[in-house]
């Protein structure tokens, strides 16, 4: 961390007038049931982050840590009103988001949630024997049906509602389906190799704020994370006397996107909130990295949620990439 670079205090205003910090802390520990030592470590690192300028925490029911998030926020001594808490519910709750909200409220123990997200557009049906079935895009509850129930949750205990892993296609389906409230946030995979150059301005025009996950390329076994090693990012970092992680994070925030980098290490947490101003030329080079270096969809490496049809078509929790709106019929990437 270079003390030359100040803590980023930038905020964005959402379509429901909520103010959201540009930089928050991600909390996915890579497992749905973290070990006691991971939980202790997370609690300590949350306290450190909160005392070092982070006012936004991103979590999810799926991460199995909402209670740790809640207890760390309470222990921090920072007024609740100064912290934005984002959490998400998983596909098994699409038939009943009101109960999902109660579950998060109870686990977090913070009185209210700032932003409650539908984690993925896909629904899951839990069968009588406990097994799970991924539902197809047109099967009930569809994401539109779920969204319409979510609209009724907005109030003092759920200040804002949003979505995650939506595209122009699925967002447009909400609009065409008569949504009365548009998502205040859409949280998507976004980094230099999957920059979502069209989705971000398209969403902004409609008042939907983009939040980026895996802005640092995440940690996916089998994927070389060139965001830390490629000469493009290293040379921009050298020019600004900042850590290489800061290049990707600054680029996203400069595009009007909220970032939620995750680290267990205090030094990195401190580094990831000290952003720099990139020049137009540097922004352009970053915007083109998906063409000049490589294009990658990290979802392809999240093996726990992948499947295949008999004909070999790749499925992500039962949906094709065309269903999501990531690709067209011919398999061309839709940015
Ligand atoms: P990320 O923040 O892009 O990257 C995290 C990885 O980068 C970790 O391995 C971390 O290691 C390392 N790292 C962080 N800061 C660093 C630095 N300054 N220098 C070097 N390495 C650094 O990836 P992510 O955790 O996948 O995404 C961020 C957050 O987005 C998640 O935590 C979660 O809250 C959210 N998310 C949402 C979805 C969704 O479907 N909505 C999906 C994935 C993630 P150490 O911890 O060892 O430092």
What descriptive keywords fit this protein?
16% strand; 335 residues; TIM Barrel; globular; alpha/beta; binds NADP nicotinamide-adenine-dinucleotide phosphate
Summarize the structure.
With 335 residues, the chain is α/β, with parallel strands linked by helices.
Describe the protein's architecture and organization.
This protein has 335 residues and is an alpha/beta fold. It has one domain: NADP-dependent oxidoreductase domain (TIM Barrel, Alpha-Beta Barrel). Helices cover 32% and strands 16% of the residues. It is built from 11 helices and 13 strands. A 7-stranded parallel beta sheet has the order 3-4-5-8-9-10-11, covered by helices on one side. Strands 1-2 form a two-stranded antiparallel sheet. The chain has a two-stranded antiparallel ribbon with strand order 6-7. Helix 1 runs parallel beside helix 2 and helix 7 crosses helix 8. The radius of gyration is 19 Å and the shape is globular. The model has no long low-confidence stretch (mean pLDDT 95). NADP nicotinamide-adenine-dinucleotide phosphate binds next to helix 9.
What is the CATH class? Alpha Beta
Percent range for β-strand residues: 15-25%
Mean pLDDT: 95
Low-confidence stretches: none
Radius of gyration: 19 Å
Organism: Hyaloscypha bicolor E
Protein name: Putative aldo-keto reductase
GO molecular function: oxidoreductase activity, acting on the CH-OH group of donors, NAD or NADP as acceptor
Keywords: NADP, Oxidoreductase
